Amino acid sequence: MSAFRRHWIWLLALAVLLAFPFLFYDWTKGRHSGFVLTLMSEIGVMAIFALSYNMLMGQAGLLSFGHAVLFGLGAYCAAHVVNLVKAGTIWLPTELVPLAGGLGGMFFGYVLGWLVTKQRATAFAMITMGLGELVSAAALMFMGFFGGEGGISIDRVMDTSLLGVAYTSPWQVYCLVLAWAFIAAALMQLQTQTPLGRIANATRDNFERAQFVGYDPRMVRLLQFTLSGFFAGVGGGLYVLIYEIVTFDTVSAAKSANALLAVYIGGAGGFFGPILGTIVVVLLQSGVSLLSNAWLLYVGVLFIVMVMYAPGGLIGLIFMHAPIWRIGRLRELTVPYLKALPAALLILAGFVMLVELASFTTIGAAQGKKLAIAGAVIDTGSPLPWLVAAGALGLGILWMRFAARGFRARWDALIEDARRQGVMS
Amino acid sequence: MEVFVVSLLNGLVYGMLLFMLASGLTLILSMMGVLNFAHASAYMLGAYFAFTISQHIGFWPALVIAPLLCGLIGAAIEMWGLRRVHRNGHVAELLFTFGLALIIEKVVQMTWGLLPVPYRIPELLDFPLFTIYGTHFPAYRAFMLLVSALMFGAIWLGLTRTRIGLIIQAALTHPEMASALGHNVPRIFTLVFAAGTALAGLAGVIGGNYQVTEPAMAFTMGPIVFVVVVFGGLGSLTGCFIASILMGLIQTFAVVFDVSLADLLARFGFVVTKETPFAEVLTVTLPRIGALLPFLMMVLILVFRPRGLMGTRDT
Amino acid sequence: MQPRKGLSALLGFVLALAAGGTAWAQQTIKIAYTDPLSGPFAQVGDANLKQMQYIIDFINAKGGALGKKFELVPFDNKSQPSDALIALKSATDQNMPFIMQCSGSNIAAALIEAVNKHNDRNPDNRIIYLNCGAVAPELTNEQCSFWHFRFDLHAAMKAEVMVRALPKDITKVYLINQDYLFGQSVQREVKNYLTKLRPDVQVVGDELIPLGKIKDFSPYITKIKASGAQALLTGNWGPDMNLLIKAGVDAGADLRYYTFYAHLAGGPTAIGAGGDNRVLAVMPFNENVAPEIGNAEAEAFARGFREKHKFDFSSAGFRTIFEYLQAAINKAGSLDPTKIAYAMEGLSHKDFLGFDSTMRKDDHQIVSVYFVGVFKKGVKYDAEGTGLGWGTAATVLAKDIDQPNSCKMKRPKM
Q1: Any residues with CB less than 8 A from the CB of C107 and at least 6 apart, and which?
Q2: CB-nearest partner of C226 from B3, B221, B253
Q3: Residue B288 touches chain C, beta carbons under 8 Å
Q4: N or C: which end of chain B has fewer CB within 10 A?
Q5: Per-residue pLDDT tens for A177-227?
Q6: What does CATH list as the number for A12-309?
């Protein structure tokens, strides 16, 4: 029972994730929405990837610009293994393909790690950046291992499933991704409590002291890098199963940047931060990009807002409420939040509308699109929509300033109370 | 001989362009520790500003106005953005500039369109300066050399001969000490960031028509600038200068030598055939990877000498 | 206040998704179109999208197919295969019968594989992949698929067009290509057709360059000059081509540049007046073809786009795609992708310029007329306001480039 109490959050998450795709189930045709399932599988893979990145950034304080190299190389290994299995050379259950990717990632993690972990801080970052560029260039040049531009494609239906599942439908793959995501996340969380995980923290916080105590920081970095390579490789193996192809863009700098962004937006501090961040990043990338050409601008603005106002990431924002929750007065924040909500919505609406109008008049119009809100086509030539948007933005900012004052007063009072009751850490 | 002389000149021109871009970044990175991903965006902005200005009042005013505009933007970014972010750590600063780079790219696309703009070399300089072994050496390239050499001189004089330069130099190597001595370090930061951005803008003005002015130019120029700065070493303008020229020359001369590892091995009596393991890697010729050599060199130098070529402290 | 804001954005997004997910009554024939629409390569998708939209409006005005109108649904793939595959899922969710993609053979290869598997696994929800510009020869040879139709000549055919257009006085050529699948196949095929068709031509140099990494091409020009080449043959695109030609023009090299892609959006601007009578491009269409052959109707069609968008109409060849679709759907008498695919293969067509083309049955590769244009002054329609435009230097008819293929097509049951 106590085990259940401690782990209920995992079970709840699992139940929600299994149920969620059914919201989009097409009952008339009796099939799942492939788009939603693929998107959620993508989130699962990227969450593993981001968590493995956090083993470097959050735990060991190592800023890497080339983490996708491990992800991608793991994916290439998994793809080759699947093709060997398909050809009958070796036998491996479909369910264990991500493990093959993981071992590949671990191997390259050790080999490349031997090189990059010689340094730390900025030098480490720049070495990983250089390696990332080199590997992604090599992925295009060499046909043998990387398959050139066309990449390596596989067929995930190989009749070697332990559970007798064919893996023809995205739903089956999604379940496999979920299972692996939970296993990987649990293992990574356990790893944070092992001696290695703790020492990694120590080398992050006080590099010299850890050295004096007698640990070889280079060895700690190498082990951490190798392990992180394993989990990135597991993600790569799952990527192969979802898309049934692996191409050079899996090792690219853009992929590496995604991990960094997910971890930072979610928050490197808490274990679940990167998962939250991944959800936001993937939805922005694969969801909002369908709605707007200007999605990259929104991503940019989101980063800037985050680094300026919420350096702890989303998880940091949530944790800020912890002391107030502990004194049981979280409810008192409802009204101030509700007061600020319309202001936030106004700012959001005004800003999005301005950007969309500008983007539309310069690029979208010529593409034959029509800017429409709720079916009503908007004439971008007339000044009215611009005025409305600017007005909403201005009003929102004024309102927000006003609401923020009240909010701050309440917030400070509650925090003060929490401090007095001694629940502030 | 013919190829050698022409390649030397070309390598020099490209190296000097790299230096113009990298010198600003080296100041920013060494002094503020900011991995400024928006630096190449300033380069792009410089080129676009120059394009618009040269359409209205000509290239020569643009040469002055565009870098100044970039510098102003840089100062604004530092004062209202970076300074706030500074206390949240270096990763936050890096992501801030990354977000900025995304925004600038989109704004450029919305303002000037998605296609390259016809930013041309001014007619006054559009003639071959001299012809060497039948190859023209355009006057504009000589002009680029001149501008970058003047810039190098100006920065060097500014850093060594002026009071503010001396403070900057002090802050470059010992930032804490400089502020402990009572210098207004935030104002120096703003100044350095603005100057660095203006230098990138200047590089854009004279590089934009030598290359192609398009929304992707920041994206493609970004990584190589970091390589030059890190290779040259933090805190050393001379190191940055040498690294730029070296990178320019290496990339130029790599094209000339058609050799591969397989050729090298053949000298020692080891013949590479299609069956040899890693034959694909061994038979890659130098020109094929010429443009990747800077990255390789950066990785190697950082592994064995983390302070770079002439850096004053570890990267 | 941040979490609220994020949450509301999320909620709005989920609602929008749900709205998008509900199947609309099939009023139109939807074509999912996926190419980069954002980021540094956005101009590729942007230029294609504009021209296709113009063509679709024209085709719809002529009645569409089966009384229904065509509708293009753009998906941004950011040049990433994984995003293209997500777009494919989205298209099949909404029962769109077609997905179209133009740029990048890596994405094309991924799409072919994915469409094959999807159609095998979901016989009731099939989709056809229309390839409007990914030109790796493998796609209609080793990798050929019943569901894939390519509406552009592949690299080997373009190479043959280029070699055929090489004037007799050129006997020394230099090859520069990008070091990846496409560049490597251009390199291979150009050499192949040079030995076959022009044994008198000597290849004096042959280089591969890393994709998009080189910022200064002057050293290559020096090397080319030293080799004594008269013409430079290249499959480069984007900055790798623009900078190469620019460097050559600046150095005053006495060269002719035979390219695959100099005519695409952005190329003429980057090359400028220095390329006069030096730069040639292998192209499916240019606006001066119609006035040159005296086809007033085609000229008016192309001019319409120019007047509407103040921009060149370089890809009017896309019109052939939609005319094929129209013909195939009408012939099949249904919107069932399997029937349409059967109707489309082997279809012949006279394009709006009056040239014949065929969608070959055995490999689903179009064979159509192709032009080699030369960038010069004094043409009727200039390119990108440079004052120079593309005049036709050579016309290669479909029957001359009907190359053999190695496709072993597997066909499903009707």
Answers
A1: C34, C77, C79, C80, C81, C84, C101, C134
A2: B3
A3: yes
A4: N
A5: 999 999 999 999 899 889 888 888 888 888 788 888 888 888 889 999 999
A6: 1.10.3470
